[in-house]
């Protein structure tokens, strides 16, 4: 069901309190965002996952603030009611000053409701400073793709008891620092359940099991648009790549064989005007 009113953090908190789940998806353009809002998606994320589908990059490292702000502005135009979250790109929050300035751009230029930061406990001070400056922050814990190069790949976080305790404690520190919500990526369901149960703020899972308050996946993955293998936690709700390619092939064929455009696609002239034009062309030839 389409969203009917602006979704605020208090609405997500009410859903959490009532034990009702909510849905979050990525969008990088106004069309996709409008379709999602019409479908009732409460939270839209302009993720730096835009790197692959939009920019054709192999990872998220090359996403810039300028590109991300421009796309976030478009998404907000398409989805004025959704709770809009924008991803802070790699190195855009390396110091508190940078984090506040860049998050401020998302808020002022694109009207986001929150910014997401791939982070860990070493950055607690930066999170605190952002909150202090009035920025709603969603720490992204667990697997943090921006650190994949440093860590040597994409790794599930919290598989050992010690790692699980570490992620639980970090989540609690982030909440104490004033975070508005948490996002857990590739975290086993057991620590995710503990975090969600103890957290006063909504917890969103991305491959973190069923106990979270809301769930997020990359839209291009769930629509079957992504050519690469998708992560284990993604369910494909459609296979849109195939019909899209078929439509493009049919278009190419019809352009080449004269089937397109057909008379119904023309903007015809009136009979009198046609006659005048024909007379003019005759004189010219
Ligand atoms: O960038 C992104 O889309 C994300 C989601 C996968 C959570 O961080």
Report on this model:
With 285 residues, this protein is of the alpha/beta class. The protein folds into two domains: 9-239, Phosphoenolpyruvate-binding domains (TIM Barrel, Alpha-Beta Barrel); 244-284, no CATH class. Helix content is 42%, strand content 13%. Strands 1-2-3-4-5-6-7-8 form an eight-stranded parallel beta barrel, surrounded by seven helices. Helix 2 crosses helix 3, helix 4 (96-110) packs across helix 5 (124-132) and helix 7 packs parallel to helix 8.
Physical arrangement of strands within the biggest beta sheet: 1-2-3-4-5-6-7-8
Residues in helix, %: 40-55%
Total beta strand runs: 8
State the CATH topology of the largest domain: TIM Barrel
**CATH architectural type of the largest domain:** Alpha-Beta Barrel
Tell me which ligands are bound. 3-methyl-2-oxobutanoic acid
- Profile the largest sheet: 8 strands, parallel, barrel
Termini separation (Å)? 62 Å
Q: How many separate structural domains?
A: 2
Q: Low-confidence spans: pLDDT under 50, at least 5 residues?
A: none
CATH level-four homologous superfamily name of the largest domain: Phosphoenolpyruvate-binding domains
Arithmetic mean pLDDT:
97
Beta-strand level of the residues, as a percent range?
5-15%
């Amino acid at each position: 069901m389409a969203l009917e009113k602006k979704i605020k953090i208090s609405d997500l908190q009410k859903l959490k309190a009532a034990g009702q789940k909510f849905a979050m998806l990525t969008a990088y353009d106004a069309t996709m965002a409008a379709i999602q809002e019409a479908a009732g998606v409460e939270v839209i994320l302009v993720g730096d996952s835009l790197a692959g589908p939009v920019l054709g990059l192999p990872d998220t490292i090359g996403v810039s603030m300028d590109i991300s702000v421009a796309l976030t502005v478009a998404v907000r135009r398409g989805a004025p009611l959704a709770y809009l979250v924008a991803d802070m790109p790699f190195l855009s929050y390396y110091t508190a000053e940078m984090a506040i300035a860049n998050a401020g751009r998302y808020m002022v230029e694109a009207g986001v409701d929150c910014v997401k930061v791939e982070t860990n406990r070493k950055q607690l001070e930066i999170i605190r400073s952002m909150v202090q400056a009035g920025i709603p922050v969603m720490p992204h814990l667990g697997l943090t793709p921006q650190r994949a190069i440093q860590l040597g790949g994409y790794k599930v976080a919290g598989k050992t008891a010690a790692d699980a305790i570490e992620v639980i404690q970090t989540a609690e520190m982030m909440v104490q620092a004033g975070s508005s919500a948490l996002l857990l990526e590739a975290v086993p369901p057991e620590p995710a359940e503990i975090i969600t149960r103890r957290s006063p703020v909504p917890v969103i899972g991305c491959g973190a099991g069923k106990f979270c308050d809301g769930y997020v996946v990359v839209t291009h993955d769930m629509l079957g648009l992504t050519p690469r293998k998708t992560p284990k936690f993604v369910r494909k709700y459609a296979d849109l790549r195939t019909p899209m390619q078929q439509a493009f092939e049919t278009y190419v064929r019809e352009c080449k064989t004269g089937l397109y455009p057909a008379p119904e696609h023309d903007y015809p002239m009136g009979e009198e005007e046609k006659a005048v034009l024909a007379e003019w062309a005759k004189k010219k030839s």
